[in-house]
Amino acid sequence: MRYMVLVGHDEKGGKTMSPEQHQALFAAYQKYEADLKQAGVLLGGDPLQGSDRGVRISTQGGKRKLLDGPFSESKEIIGGYFLLEVKSRDEAVQWATRCPAADLDSWSYVELREIQEIPR
Amino acid sequence: MSARDAHSADPVARVAAAIWRIESAKLIAVLTRLLRSVDLAEELAQDAFVEALQVWRRNGIPDNPGGWLMTAGRHRALDALRHTRRVERKHDQLEREQQGSIAADFDEASDDVIGDDLLRLMFVACHPVLSQEGRVALTLRLLGGLTTVEIGRAFLVSEATIAQRITRAKRSLAEKAIAYELPQPAELRARLESVLEVIYLVFNEGYLASDGADWMRPALCEDALRLGRTLAQLVPAESEVHALLSLMEIQASRARARGGPDGQAVLLLDQDRSKWDTLLVRRGLEGLTRAESLVQQGPGPYLLQAAIAGCHARARAAQDTDWPRIASLYAALMHIAPSPVVELNRAVAAGMAFGPAVGLAIVDPLQDDPDLRDYPFLPSVRADLLAKLGRFAEAKTAVERAAALTRNARERALFLERAAEYGRDERR
Hints:
The structure holds 2 protein chains of 2 kinds. Chain A is of the alpha+beta class.
C-alpha cells in the first residue's frame, strides 16, 4: 500500500522561527528521512518551494484563469511530501505521526492520504 | 505478537502490531549487541512488547512508542546482564565497575550505532554457516518483523516448520559461536553476497511462485524490496547492493502487467507496457546508474542482471528492445557467473538480435545439460526458435514437453495454447 504524507503549513508560521529553530527543524526532517530510508519504506519525497513561486490554474465561467502565488488567502499550503510503501494503514499512521510537522505548533500539520491504485 | 494482531478489532493491538513492524528489527539489533545473543535479544524484545501492550492499554499509546519500547527493552537487557554478572562475579567493586561500563554501552546508541547494529544483525541472520532455509526464515523474522505464521503462509509451509527452522538456525549460531561483529574487510564481499542471496530468494519466492496456482505472492516481494532498501541505506557504497535493489524494483514494476484477464501469465514481450509501474521503473533505473557508478573491479552479477532488466525497462515497445546489448550482457554474465540458465537466456537474446538459427545453435547443446533436464523453459525457448525457423512439428513436440515439466497450472495452460498454435501452423 502506498501513502502520501503531506506536510501542510501556514506560510506565515515559518517566518516567526529563529535561525536556531529553523536549523533544529531541518535536522529533524533529515533524521525523519533517514529513519524512513533505513526502514526501507521511502519511495520518494521532496520539500516544495514557497507558494510565492507557484501558480494556480482553473477555469471560471468558461475562461482559463491563472493565479500567481503567494496564495495569501489560503491559510494552509502544502510544503512538501513523502511517498511511503507500507503494509497497513496503521503502519502509515505511525510513520505520519513521526513527521516533524506533526510536532510543531498549530501552524503546521501532517495529512496522510492513501494512493489510489488505478487499474490500467 | 501474533499475525492476528495486524487485523484485530482491538485498536491498541493493531497499532502495536504496526509499531512492532517498524521497531522490532532495531530493538532486536540493539539488544543483540548488548547481550551477544540473538535468541535472548529476541525474547527480551518480545517481553518488552508484551509489557508495552499492557501499559498502553491502560494509559494509551505514548507519543514516542519506539523510544518507549527501546527503553523497556534496554531495562530488560540491563537486568539480564546484571543478573549474569552477579552470578559470575561476587565482588561489589567489580559489580560497580561493570555497571558503569554497561551504562556507557547504553548511552552510545546513537542513530549511527543503530544502523551498524542492524547491519550486524543482517550479517548474522544471513551467516553462511546456516542453511538457506534457516537464513531466509531468520531474516524475515528478525529483520522483516514477520511472525512465524506470516512466514509459513508466505512459503506455503506450516508455522511449526518455520518455528523449527528458526530454532535450528539460532542453535547453529550459538553452537558455532558466531561472533556478532561486522565482517572484516577481506570477507565483507563474500558475506554481503550471502545477504543479497537471501533477499533475492525471498523476492523470487514471491515473484515466481512456481508452486500452485498463484502467479505471484506480492507480500514477499514487498518484504524483499524493503530489506533491499534498508541494506542500500546501510551500505551505500556497494555497487551490488544498489544493483540488486534496482533489479528487484524493475522486475516488480511489471507486476500489474504480468497477469492476463483470466489470471494467466503474460510474458515480458507481450506485456502492455503502459501497465508498468513508472515510479518503480524510474527508481530502478536510478539505482542502476548508481550501481554502475560504484563499480570497482568489473560489474558484479546483480549489476549485469539489473542492466539487462534496464534494457527492457527503457524500451517503450517490445520491438525497441536493444537485443544485441542484452546478448552481450548475458555473455558477460556467463563469464563471471556461468550457469546453463544464463546460457539459455543468452540464446533467447542472441536469437532476437541475430536470428533464430544463432539462438538455436546456443540452445541445442544445452539439451544434454543435466541441470536443465526438468527445466520447462529450455523446451519452451527451443520451441519458439524452431517455430521461427518454420519447423512447426518439432516446435510442437518441444512445447508439449515444456507443458509436461511445469508445476505452475497457469504456465501449463500457456504452453498448451502454444502447442495448439504450432499444430495449426504446421497444417497451414
